[in-house]
Structures are given as C-alpha cells and as structure tokens.
Design a protein that fits this description.
Blueprint lengths: L1 E5 L4 H14 L7 H4 L3 E7 L2 E11 L2 E9 L9 H14 L4 E7 L3 H6 L3 E9 L2 E9 L1
Length: 136
C-alpha cells in the first residue's frame, strides 16, 4: 500500500469521499468546507485510491478527520496501519497531541490504537460521537 500527502482537495480524495460519504452514508457535500483547509493522506493499491484520512492543526493540536476506506478493503485490517502512517506524518510536522471525533460505534477501534475518551457522548452528523485523544 502506497500513500501520498496532499495539501488541498484533488480528484483521488473526492473519489474516495464520494464512494463512502455520499454513496454509502447519504451525505452531500457537507465536508467540502472542512476538507479544503486540511492535509489529506491518500492510500493507494496499484495506483487506485482506496482510502483517505484528513487532518489539520489548530492551537498546536492536530485534529484527525474521518478515516474513509473503500468497502472492498475493510476486511483487510488496514485501518490501524493507516492510522499509524497518519500519526507519523503528524509527528514529522512536530505534532505530539492528536484529537478526533469518533462515532461511538467505532470507538473500540480507536481505543485499540491508543486513543482515550475525553468528554461526553454527543449527537452529531446523525449519530452519537465521542471526542478522543492520543499523545504521540
């Protein structure tokens, strides 16, 4: 699995995003405003984009956005590998603290990857979320 880091939206990011957020989850373009100001790490299998994860820095804290992985690749246990690569990219930029907003149904995945819950469960984007953080 190869990856590339992009500082702005490109067709590969939009393709993965459309496959998951729009086709599977029924969103429209709610993420355009957020995504245009994020760094995106796009993962490829034989030059085909299969996953994307975004992050941005605010007040010296890095925030990771949704990890989006094409359905056909979800049973290959790539999520943890992808998170490690994104965290390494953040560390290269000098980051030492990462936060994210996880859907409650997947918080176990983030917990396995070293993230701790902070705050209370809240309702956002049609489902329950929890803020989580990790020190790199």
């Amino acid at each position: 699995m190869d990856y590339k880091k992009y500082l702005k939206l490109n067709p590969d990011i939009v393709k993965v995003r459309a496959e998951i957020f729009i086709k599977e989850q029924g969103f429209k373009n709610e993420f355009d405003k957020i995504d245009k100001n994020c760094t995106h790490v796009v993962f490829y299998d034989k030059n085909i984009p299969i996953a994307v994860c975004r992050y941005y820095k605010e007040n010296n804290i890095y925030h990771i956005g949704r990890l989006a992985l094409i359905k056909e690749y979800r049973d290959k246990h790539l999520g943890s590998k992808i998170m490690k690569i994104v965290e390494e990219e953040i560390k290269k930029e000098g980051g030492s603290r990462v936060t994210l907003s996880a859907q409650v149904r997947v918080k176990k995945f983030y917990s396995k990857n070293g993230y701790k819950e902070i705050g209370n469960i809240y309702f956002d984007e049609h489902c329950e979320h929890i803020r989580m953080e990790k020190f790199l």
